[in-house]
Amino acid sequence: MTEYEKNICTRSAVRYWLGFIARLFPWIRIQRKLRKMRKAGATIGSHIGIGSDIMPPASKNLVVGDHVSIQTDRIDVRAPLTIGDYVILGDSASIITCSHDIDDPEWKFKPYGLVIEDYVWIATRAMILPSCRRIGRGAVIGAGSVVVKDVPPMAVVSGNPARIIRQRGAIHNKLKPENLLGGGMIDYLSVRVGRRANPICV
């Protein structure tokens, strides 16, 4: 059981239901946004959290996995963009999937696309340029970094241009990122339902 689950299951009934109400309205708002994104053609998984003032762009080029936290609307979906499971996209992070041929007299449009693998964290105001085509599983992109090439799995990169500064010690496999932004209503309810069966929660 995670610390988040322990915190929920040991709450008093009053505090639990106050927490439920606090999560209910953000969850409803997120579900409306997800319906709009799916209607626009995007393939969206389950258990998604989206910032309160954000409406991410969507098209058939966008594929999002499960348990994802999206805190930015600076996402370019003119070329295929795949976001894996348990990914965290930080506040105002920018993902650019297309460019232009600067040597072409007509400035030819060049779509590239990007794959973001599972357990990646792209921190606040990081920028992913079209020359980056893949961010490996568990990689971390430091705040304000400018990524110009592929990032290996479990690498921690930072700077402009971003360079590897170390390897990550562990992935965030005990975190459900949607809980960061009010998208964890199902988890919140399921912890309470299982309360009596769990000795920690009695």
Q: Can you put this structure into words, describing what you see?
A:
A hairpin with an 8-residue loop joins strand 8 and strand 9. This protein has one domain: Hexapeptide repeat proteins (UDP N-Acetylglucosamine Acyltransferase, domain 1). Helix content is 21%, strand content 24%. The mean pLDDT is 91. The strands form 4 sheets. Strands 2-4-6-11-14-16-17 form a 7-stranded mixed beta sheet. Strands 1-3-5-10-13 form a 5-stranded parallel beta sheet, covered by helices on one side. It has a 3-stranded parallel beta sheet with strand order 7-12-15, with no helix packed on it. It has 202 residues and is an alpha/beta fold. The chain contains 3 helices and 17 strands.
Quick structural summary:
This protein is an alpha/beta fold and 202 residues long. It has helices at 3-9, 13-39, 185-193; strands spanning 43-44, 48-50, 62-64, 68-70, 81-83, 88-89, 94-95, 98-100, 109-111, 114-116, 121-122, 127-128, 134-135, 140-141, 146-147, 155-159, 162-167.
> What is the radius of gyration?
19 Å
Helical proportion, percent range: 10-25%
Q: What is the domain total for the residues?
A: 1
CATH fold descriptor: UDP N-Acetylglucosamine Acyltransferase, domain 1
Structural category is: alpha/beta
**H/E element order:** HHEEEEEEEEEEEEEEEEEH
Strand order of the largest sheet: 2-4-6-11-14-16-17
Mean pLDDT: 91
Strand content: 15-25%
Terminal residue distance: 14 Å
Please tally the β strands and state the result. Answer: 17
List segments where confidence is low: pLDDT < 50 over at least 5 consecutive residues: none
Overall outline = globular
- Our count of helices gives 3
CATH superfamily placement: Hexapeptide repeat proteins
CATH class: Mainly Beta
CATH architecture: 3 Solenoid
Largest sheet: 7 strands, mixed
